């Protein structure tokens, strides 16, 4: 099973597949060759992540050592209000056109038939994949909070890499992931930190793929850090909890009580897992506590109604959460032609007007480096520094998680 290389979360997914006895590997990171193949096999009107993930598939099947009998591609599947559910249809057509009709694309639908679609690997897989991805989010948060303040270059990255290797091994071996997070916490505790020079803290929100994929967002986190900032990013796991909310909403409309009960139990288990894996980082992370989906939707309420499904409502809600947490600016990223992204960027202009001089920056990515992007980021960071001086530094997240349940 070949997993798209969106971020290090893909390695957790691959480890969960392998834990179930299914050979899995993560595709190489996207690069210029990816774009070349992706653009060659798309019309230019598709979402940018569709172009990147299609290009990665074509790049892989074009390898001289590609074994057409030995591989299947994994791709997300979805209904809902945007084009994500069409990626695998497009990619099926592309592989067919290239003569790879026999290479499967495995795209479980994230709607109400998700659990049936995941039947080939079983429910153990879902729990292992979920826990692995949350764990990656937690150590990534620790990396983002430590790296801008480290006094020994590379120390935070080394702690992150060691923690990632450890947690992937634990997922594979069905070990105790909470203990792995405790070990990660100890590693980050040892990273030498100097916070005497306050840095503006920038929230990164926006479309799921471009937000998480450094190649697609042209390494926006590195650029903000190079300009003297610290980044807090909306976690990848946020999307999966939101998916539970959407499934419940759909089932409520259909009056499917049994599904709602099953979905609620699933959501409860996932939330407890999230809290158990976050808890070892309490006291270390300032960006420790993620608000529940319902709270994020409440925060978006003044701008977009929760019945408007998709990324827009979460992007807006998360931006408001960052403002409420006292951050010094928000960068919202979206792929070129993204439907929810276009909506959220328009709405965020209103939010900006309503929050006085709070610095907002909308960034749109299509794979081409724009000459003005760096200048816009520099101007934004200048505003963020000014805002920080007026508002003061971000304080630690004092929220307590519910009592440990396991
Ligand atoms: S969220 Fe945007 S980029 Fe992603 S599939 Fe939907 S429309 Fe495309």
Summarize the structure.
The chain is α/β, with parallel strands linked by helices and 406 residues long. The chain contains 16 helices and 8 strands.
Write out key terms for the chains shown.
406 residues, 8 strands, 53% helix, binds iron/sulfur cluster, alpha/beta
Account of the protein in words:
The protein has 406 residues and is α/β, with parallel strands linked by helices. Among the domains are: 23-120, no CATH class; 198-235 and 290-391, Rossmann fold, CATH 3.40.50. Helices cover 53% and strands 8% of the residues. The protein has 16 helices and eight strands. The strands form three sheets. A four-stranded parallel β-sheet has the order 6-5-7-8, with helices on both faces. It has a two-stranded parallel sheet with strand order 1-2. α6 runs parallel beside α8 (177-189) and α6 (123-146) runs parallel beside α12 (257-278). The chain is globular, with a radius of gyration of 21 Å. The two termini are 32 Å apart. The model has no long low-confidence stretch (mean pLDDT 91). Bound molecules: iron/sulfur cluster. Iron/sulfur cluster binds next to α15.
């Amino acid at each position: 099973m070949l997993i798209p290389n969106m971020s290090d979360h893909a390695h957790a997914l691959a480890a969960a597949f392998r834990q179930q006895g299914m050979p899995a590997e993560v595709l190489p990171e996207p690069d210029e060759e990816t774009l070349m193949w992706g653009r060659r096999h798309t019309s230019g009107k598709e979402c940018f992540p569709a172009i990147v993930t299609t290009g990665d598939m074509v790049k892989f099947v074009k390898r001289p050592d590609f074994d057409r009998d030995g591989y299947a591609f994994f791709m997300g599947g979805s209904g809902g209000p945007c084009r994500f559910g069409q990626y695998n249809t497009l990619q099926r057509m592309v592989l067919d056109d290239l003569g790879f009709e026999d290479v499967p694309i495995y795209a479980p639908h994230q709607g109400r038939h998700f659990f049936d679609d995941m039947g080939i690997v079983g429910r153990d897989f879902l729990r292992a994949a979920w826990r692995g991805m949350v764990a990656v989010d937690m150590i990534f948060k620790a990396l983002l909070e430590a790296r801008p303040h480290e006094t020994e270059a590379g120390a935070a990255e080394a702690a992150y890499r060691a923690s990632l290797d450890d947690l992937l091994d634990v997922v594979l071996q069905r070990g105790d992931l909470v203990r792995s997070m405790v070990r990660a916490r100890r590693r980050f505790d040892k990273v030498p930190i100097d916070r005497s020079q306050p840095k503006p803290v920038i929230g990164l929100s926006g479309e799921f793929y471009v937000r998480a994929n450094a190649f697609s967002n042209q390494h926006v986190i590195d650029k903000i850090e190079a300009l003297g900032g610290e980044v807090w990013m909306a976690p990848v796991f946020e999307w999966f909890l939101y998916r539970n909310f959407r499934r419940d909403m759909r089932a409520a409309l259909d009056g499917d009580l049994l599904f709602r009960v099953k979905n609620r139990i699933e959501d409860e288990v996932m939330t407890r897992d999230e809290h158990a894996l976050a808890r070892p980082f309490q006291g270390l992370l300032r960006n420790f506590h993620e608000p529940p989906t319902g709270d994020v939707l409440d925060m978006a309420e003044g701008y977009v109604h929760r019945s408007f499904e998709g990324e827009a409502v979460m992007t807006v809600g998360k931006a408001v959460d960052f403002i409420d947490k006292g951050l010094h600016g928000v960068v919202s990223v979206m792929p070129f032609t993204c439907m929810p992204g276009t909506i959220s960027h328009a709405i965020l202009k209103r939010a900006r007007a309503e929050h006085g001089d709070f610095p907002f920056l909308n960034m749109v990515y299509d794979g081409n480096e724009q000459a003005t992007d760096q200048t816009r980021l520099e101007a934004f960071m200048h505003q963020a520094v000014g805002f920080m001086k007026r508002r003061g530094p971000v304080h630690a997240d004092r929220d307590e998680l519910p009592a440990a349940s396991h």
